[in-house]
């Protein structure tokens, strides 16, 4: 065990990104391994929120729209564009990931109206599947969903994608990094296969943005959505983003017509005329407080550099995996993430039949041990998220030591095996 501890300390000393840890609020005790679900709070977001609420809203009132707010979403969208490899005028910020997925999926299906199949997989996030089911049930009643099944619950091969693409595929929609196993598709390869079949591709970047380099332009991606409260540290419910490749913007329509998507929102015309460019995908008034609070987290990702973050994440993953193999596999844990580093994002799934109870024991230790926060995904996945911006090697070490302690003391037995309210 000690050799791992020494190694962790050494790796932290040599880590060029270690300095970013102090930019986030922390109690200095809790080991937080859930940055893939809700990123930590950047110190600067506190000051900015105070300023926006007290001064901009409190003092300047409506005047703040012109002074600060009208361009805020665009500025933040420009920063996200750099992180996901897109042009600034291809990213729009606002609404939730679910709603953005609805808008773009609807637009894609309308554009491809001669084709009747929607292709996705069973590793996709539930809200994505629900949105597609709703579209077929309520709007595109002649369409059907073809859901590719993973053979091992971890990954899907490119042969499976290729085999299922056909001249009838209107749209292929996938999570670039899947939420449970962290399996990552090869975006360039999938785009190419889909384009050869005449299909559009709609990517969900929620578990990828801020964790792995994404090259939307370089891989000729059509459409994408993603959330900002995970690896981008935007805060709970922070506005999501959407991407539409420049040449598709004039061809696709926003299915929801509203004043912020109007060509001239402040002329208050009675007739709807859509805006040109990416802002045609807007709907209503942007969420200013959340957008302002989100900016520092995104700026930190940019400062650290996405390629550097990926390098550190891979190193941390490797360290964690070696420790798991040595310390936890003997207790019946099974790795449920891809073995190949090129095929995974920045979190890791460990399965154990007592997974839910082990998670509870990590979060609520009854013996004064350090609190470790992972998360749990049914039926038995413990997810350990590596957020390289603020996760240290030593924290990964502490987490494994603690899980082993829980197994040795059978602490999981103090908790019920009743899965409930897992955020
Ligand atoms: C987190 C996540 C979402 C979240 O959608 P919201 O509308 O923001 O709640 C959607 N898709 C994926 C793949 C996610 O990981």
How much of the sequence is in beta strands?
A: 5-15%
Annotation field: number of helices: 13
Distance between the termini: 32 Å
Structural class: alpha/beta
Strand segment count:
13
Estimate the global geometry from the Cα principal axes. globular
Helix content: 25-40%
Write the layout of secondary structure elements.
Layout: H1 2-14, E1 31-32, H2 43-57, H3 64-69, H4 72-84, E2 91-93, H5 97-111, E3 117-121, H6 126-138, E4 144-148, H7 158-164, E5 169-175, H8 187-196, E6 200-204, E7 223-226, E8 241-244, H9 246-249, H10 288-304, H11 306-327, E9 334-335, E10 347-351, H12 355-363, E11 372-373, E12 375-377, E13 381-385, H13 393-409
Parallel strand pairs: 1-11, 3-4, 3-5, 5-6, 6-7
Antiparallel strand pairs: 2-8, 7-8, 9-10, 10-13, 12-13
Helix pairs in contact: 1-13, 2-10, 4-10, 5-6, 11-13
């Amino acid at each position: 065990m000690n050799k791992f501890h020494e190694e962790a300390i050494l790796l932290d000393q040599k880590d060029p990104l270690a300095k970013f840890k102090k930019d986030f609020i922390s109690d200095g005790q809790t080991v937080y391994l859930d940055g893939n679900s809700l990123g930590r709070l950047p110190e600067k977001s506190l000051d900015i929120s105070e300023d926006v609420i007290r001064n901009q809203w409190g003092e300047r009132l409506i005047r703040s729209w012109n002074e600060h707010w009208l361009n805020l979403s665009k500025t933040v969208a420009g920063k996200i564009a750099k992180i996901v490899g897109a042009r600034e005028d291809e990213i729009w910020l606002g609404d939730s990931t679910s709603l953005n997925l609805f808008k773009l999926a609807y637009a894609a299906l309308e554009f491809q109206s001669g084709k009747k199949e929607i292709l996705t997989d069973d590793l996709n996030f539930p809200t994505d599947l629900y949105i597609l089911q709703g579209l077929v049930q309520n709007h595109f009643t002649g369409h059907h969903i073809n859901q590719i099944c993973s053979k091992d619950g971890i990954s899907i091969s490119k042969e499976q994608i290729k085999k299922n693409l056909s001249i009838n595929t209107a749209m292929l929609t996938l999570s670039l990094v899947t939420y449970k196993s962290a399996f990552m598709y090869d975006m360039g390869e999938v785009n190419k296969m889909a384009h050869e079949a005449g299909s559009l591709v709609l990517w969900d970047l929620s578990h990828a943005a801020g964790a792995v380099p994404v090259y939307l332009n370089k891989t000729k991606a059509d459409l994408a959505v993603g959330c900002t409260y995970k690896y981008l540290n935007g805060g709970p419910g922070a506005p999501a983003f959407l991407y539409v490749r420049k040449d598709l913007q004039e061809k696709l329509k926003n299915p929801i017509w509203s004043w912020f998507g109007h060509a001239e929102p402040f002329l208050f015309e009675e007739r709807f005329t859509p805006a040109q460019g990416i802002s045609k995908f807007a709907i209503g008034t942007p969420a200013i407080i959340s957008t302002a609070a989100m900016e520092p987290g995104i700026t930190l990702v940019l400062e650290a550099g996405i390629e550097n973050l990926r390098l550190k994440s891979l190193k941390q993953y490797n360290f964690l995996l070696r420790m798991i193999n040595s310390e936890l596999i003997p207790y019946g844990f099974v790795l449920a993430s891809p073995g190949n580093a090129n095929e995974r994002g920045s979190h890791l799934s460990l399965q154990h039949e007592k997974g839910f109870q082990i998670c509870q024991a990590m979060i609520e230790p009854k013996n004064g041990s350090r609190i470790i926060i992972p998360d749990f995904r049914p039926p038995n996945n413990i997810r350990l998220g590596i957020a390289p911006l603020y996760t240290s090697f030593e924290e990964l070490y502490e987490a494994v030591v603690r899980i082993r302690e829980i197994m040795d003391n059978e602490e999981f037995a103090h908790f019920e095996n009743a899965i409930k309210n897992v955020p």
